[in-house]
Amino acid sequence: MNKIIFASIFSFIFAFQTLSAQNTAVDPFDIQTTVYKTALKNYDLQAATYALYNMLALKPARTDLNDSLALIYFAGERFAQAYITGEQILKNDPKRKDMLELVAISKQNLGLIKESLADYEKLYGIDKSLFYLYQMATLQYQLKRYGECVASLDQIIANPEAEKQKVNIRVQGGQQEVPMKAAAYNVKGICAVDLSQPDAARDNFNKALKIYPDFVLAKGNLESMDKKAKEKQVGVVAKTPPAGAPAPGVKPVQPKPVGH
Description:
Elements: H1 2-25, H2 28-41, H3 45-58, H4 65-75, H5 79-92, H6 97-109, H7 113-126, H8 130-142, H9 146-158, E1 166-171, E2 174-179, H10 180-194, H11 198-211, H12 216-239
Antiparallel strand pairs: 1-2
Helix pairs in contact: 2-3, 3-4, 4-5, 5-6, 6-7, 7-8, 8-9, 8-10, 9-10, 10-11, 11-12
């Protein structure tokens, strides 16, 4: 009986030593790579991020892993970490379009409008994309740089590709995809509203709807203008005294009795 027990213990120890030897032969980096891939497959971004940090600790020279880290942060809408990681990458390669765009969008989501605009200007310097120019225009509007905004929008409107390319615009309950030229006219109309140019605003909103009749924002902007115009008209009518009534602040003249 004792021989059997000792034989079993010996077998167990031998098996354990063999397994340990096999485990030490496995590259820890490969293990973390497997964890990373599995986490991504299950869309566990937190686990994937943790695995990436382990991979970077094991192989600091693998700077390409920072790209994956930035993209994971961006996918998880952790925009502060995304833009910080992206800017670290851009220090070594300032003209990386993918990272410049990631950083620009991240800053925009964080409310860093001026900084985001500067990044889009760099992107437009590298690639004369209408998308980048449209993003510049919307950011210029938010900064109330109306002259620059309208100039950017006019460049878009003058480009024949603007009717073919589309942009996604947030509307109540989701997003709407509209031709970029229509979107540019809509923003131009909003600028005109801010600058107290109602005729120009209406003209631009109508041009947007002519290109894309189902444009929700342009319709809403026109309806808002109509509503305000009616309210203003009603207010003027209410303030206008009826015929024969005394003007505000003027006491009516009392008629004197005849013969006195």
